[in-house]
Structures are given as structure tokens and as C-alpha cells.
Design the sequence.
């Protein structure tokens, strides 16, 4: 399953926006501070709302500092925040539609309330069936019920548990090389779901040897296409401390320099390896990945989509990934599915999001790379609006 369409109203710096026909590899492209992370945050928000434990609407809003922080500063009379998400099967046929609106009520207790919650399921012939449409009669009788969504309640979401699980299984990662390398030494608090990769080595260690070896072999093969000297990548445990480690062996090195452990890898190498690992982790829910181009040189960044797609395909993982990037190089690879490109452009009235246009698709079909066909526009507007 994957998200094929998102429609937003008053979400952070998007006053309104819609994108559709998304495939299972999505690249969200825009300049600095254009709203790429805000875009991912929609999916994270749906995850936080749908979680059975430590989740729910109130919690998801609070974590973000309240409705005032989420609601678009450019919102005018209509202040409701609204999210619509369509979920499709691998073959693109619709399965679910989820709509969630919320706001602070104009009078009375100023807790955020659900203004709309609607769940539609699509049957075999694509026939829609509405499973939930709030506010219901009981919501109107007891407005306190509108503090909670039905998707967050096990007792209320039985008919669409699959959808709740889809959202709540979402993984968000913003890998920090130092935490990947020295996580066990730094210690300290691990943020929920470990988005920064602090426990990454443990995650690898916890995988069964067979799966682990198969995944590492695929990473090794992919890495070798950009680092030909690479001979072997393996997992081992330190004899003395028992700590898990990754080790790379290079050809043509002096004997004592031939092996490197993860704390000696370059930041970029470690990030690529982690990304390639994550792409193989099982799950039916989206994997959200922030700016994989950080600490990599442009030639390698240009190879990333190819490598990622190949590892994803080889591991037969249909999991959707949504990646943010401001790198022209990342999209210089021809062969990216144009439907998977989301372009974000800032304006005075908040940012806009859009799919690739027909003329841009024609340019792509004629052999131009995504960077050439799409980016000039995305960059031009971006230069003017660098804000913090
Ligand atoms: N509710 C909001 N209304 C308007 N702008 C917002 C809101 N919340 C955040 N922003 C702004 O959105 C901008 C883009 O943020 P972000 O998604 O982090 O950009 P990117 O990831 O593309 O660098 C930031 O400048 C931030 O101040
Ligand atoms: Mg960002």
C-alpha cells in the first residue's frame, strides 16, 4: 500500500495544496525553508494520531506546540486545518481515503476538536463505501467526543484497523552520522523511534543472521558500483566489549589499512549504508527520509536514486519511500518516475506544491534529466526566499 494523493488546507506553510498519482518512490524537491520537512510532517502527524500507545490527536497537536503552530500563518477566515490522504494498492487501485479536520472551537473550552473525520473504503470494483463520517449524532450530543479521533481508538477503528496500522507504522529518519558512529558511546536519551540513527548498530545486530547477511550483501553490491575498491562488508561483534560493528575491507590498501570499522567510515558512506539498510527493512508503511545528499559529493548523490531503486527492487520491498531533497544532483539521474517528483515553491502567501507538469513530462520523455527539466523553475523561485 502507498499514499497516492495528499490534499492539505492550512497545514504549516501550505495554505492549500494537493498532489496526486504518487508512486512508491517519491522525491520532494524544494529550496531551503520551502516546507519539505513540513510536507513530511503531514505523514508523521497521521502516524502520531493513529498510534495506539502514546498517540492520539491531542498528543500529536501538543507535540507540535499546539494548533497555533500547525495552522498556516497565511490562513484567513477559514481557520480549519484539513488533511486528506488516499491510499492505493501496489497496482494503483484505491483502497482507503482518510480525511481529518480539526480546529480550536470559537467559544467554550479551547481544546482542539475534530471538525471532520471521514473514512472511505473502496471495494473490489473501486466502489466507495463510507465507514465513518463525523461529526456523528453522538458527537453532536457529547462534544467532548470530538477531542479524539476514531482512528486512534482501538474500540472505534475495528473496520479500518488496516488504515490505522498503515499510518502508525510510518518510519521517519533524519540520520546523523555522529550518532550512527558513536551512538553507544554518547549514550543518553534515544528519541522515540530513533529517527537520528543512534541505535542503528543495535538494529542491525537484532536482525537474524540470514536476513542481515542478505541485506548487507545487497548494500555491498550497490556500494561497489560507486566505490570499486570495496571488497567486503560485514557485521561483527567486538571480542572484548561485545559491541556490534560494521567492517569494510578495501582492495589495494596497505595490510593494516585494509579494514575499516564504522567509526572510520566517512559520514557519507555511513549515511548511504544506513539508507540502503532502511530501504530493506520490512513494513507496509511509508519510510520518510530527510535529505540523503548531506555529506556526499555530487557525483555520488547523482547515483543515489539508481542505487536506492536497485536495492529496493532486489529486496522485493514495496514499501513507499518519501525523500526530501534540495539537491539538483539527486535528480540529475534520468529514469526517475516523473509522477514521484513533488515540487515545492515558496511564494509570499506560503508555499505551493505541485506534480510535474505535462510539458515537463515531455521534456523528461525527450531525455532531459529531472534536474534539467524541472529544477530551473524550482530553483529560480527559491533563491528569493531564503528564510530561517
Ligand atoms: N504554521 C506555519 N505557517 C507558516 N509557516 C510555517 C508554519 N510552520 C512552519 N512554518 C515555516 O515553514 C518554513 C519551512 O520549513 P521546513 O519544512 O523546515 O523547510 P525545509 O525542510 O524545506 O527546509 C519555515 O521557515 C517555518 O518557519
Ligand atoms: Mg527540512
Sequence:
Amino acid at each position: 500500500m502507498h499514499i497516492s494523493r495528499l490534499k492539505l488546507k492550512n497545514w504549516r506553510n501550505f495554505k492549500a495544496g494537493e498532489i496526486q498519482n504518487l508512486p512508491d518512490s517519491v522525491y520532494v524537491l524544494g529550496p531551503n525553508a520551502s516546507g519539505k520537512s513540513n510536507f513530511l510532517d503531514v505523514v508523521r502527524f497521521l502516524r502520531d494520531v493513529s498510534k495506539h500507545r502514546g498517540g492520539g490527536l491531542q498528543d500529536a497537536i501538543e507535540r507540535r506546540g499546539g494548533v497555533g503552530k500547525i495552522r498556516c500563518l497565511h490562513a484567513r477566515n477559514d481557520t480549519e486545518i484539513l488533511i486528506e490522504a488516499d491510499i492505493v494498492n501496489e497496482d494503483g487501485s484505491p483502497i482507503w481515503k482518510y480525511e481529518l479536520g480539526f480546529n480550536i472551537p470559537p467559544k467554550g473550552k479551547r481544546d482542539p476538536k475534530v471538525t471532520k473525520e471521514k473514512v472511505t473504503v473502496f471495494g473490489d470494483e473501486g466502489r466507495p463505501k463510507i465507514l465513518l463520517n463525523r461529526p456523528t449524532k453522538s458527537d453532536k450530543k457529547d462534544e467532548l467526543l470530538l477531542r479524539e479521533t476514531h482512528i486512534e481508538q482501538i474500540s472505534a477503528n475495528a473496520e479500518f484497523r488496516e488504515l490505522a496500522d498503515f499510518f502508525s507504522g510510518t518510519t521517519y529518519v533524519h540520520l546523523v552520522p555522529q550518532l550512527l558512529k558513536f551512538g553507544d558511546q554518547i549514550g543518553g536519551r534515544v528519541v522515540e523511534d530513533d529517527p537520528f540513527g543512534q541505535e542503528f548498530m543495535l538494529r542491525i545486530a537484532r536482525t537474524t543472521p540470514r536476513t542481515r547477511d542478505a541485506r548487507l550483501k545487497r548494500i555491498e553490491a550497490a556500494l561497489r558500483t560507486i566505490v570499486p575498491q570495496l571488497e567486503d562488508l560485514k557485521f561483527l561483534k567486538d571480542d572484548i566489549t561485545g559491541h556490534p560493528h560494521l567492517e569494510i575491507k578495501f582492495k589495494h590498501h596497505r595490510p593494516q589499512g585494509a579494514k575499516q570499522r564504522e567509526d572510520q567510515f566517512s559520514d557519507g558512506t555511513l549515511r548511504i549504508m544506513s539508507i540502503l539498510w532502511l530501504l530493506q527493512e520490512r513494513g507496509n508503511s511509508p519510510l520518510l527520509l530527510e535529505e540523503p545528499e548531506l555529506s556526499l559529493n555530487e557525483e555520488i548523490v547523482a547515483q543515489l536514486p539508481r542505487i536506492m531503486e536497485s536495492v529496493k527492487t532486489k529486496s522485493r520491498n514495496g514499501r513507499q519511500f518519501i525523500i526530501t531533497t534540495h539537491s539538483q544532483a539527486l535528480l540529475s539521474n534520468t529514469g526517475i518516475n516523473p509522477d514521484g517528483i513533488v515540487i515545492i515553491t515558496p511564494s509570499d502567501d506560503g508555499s505551493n506544491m505541485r506534480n510535474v507538469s505535462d510539458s515537463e513530462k515531455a521534456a523528461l520523455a525527450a531525455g532531459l534529466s529531472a534536474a534539467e527539466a524541472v529544477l530551473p523553475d524550482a530553483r529560480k523561485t527559491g533563491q528569493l526566499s531564503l528564510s530561517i
